[in-house]
Design goal:
- The protein is an alpha+beta fold and 86 residues long.
- It contains 2 helices and 7 strands.
- Strand 4 and strand 5 form a beta hairpin.
């Protein structure tokens, strides 16, 4: 099973997700900001606190995004992973 190696916040509420297979994905979180579940992420300082434990992306334990949800977002956003191999 693929795991999340790192997560980095970018401008405009984007997340760069680096996977253990060498691929990286940039997710646009803006469409999610107006939902109850992800509303806390509208605060830029809070959004910047994204972290991972390998299977989830989380923000202070208050908002979580599982790796399976990341893959679902990729499908919906039409995002393709790129190989980084750094």
């Amino acid at each position: 099973m693929t795991e999340i190696k790192e997560v980095h916040t970018r401008k405009d509420y984007q997340l760069e997700v680096i996977l253990d297979n060498g691929s990286s994905i940039v997710l646009n979180m803006q469409p999610k900001l107006h939902t109850m579940r992800f509303g806390l992420l509208r605060n830029p300082e809070f959004f910047q606190c994204a972290a991972t434990d390998g299977s989830m992306i989380y923000w202070h334990g208050k908002v979580e995004l599982s790796i399976s949800e990341v893959f679902e977002m990729i499908k919906k956003q039409g995002v393709f992973a790129r190989d980084t191999y750094e």
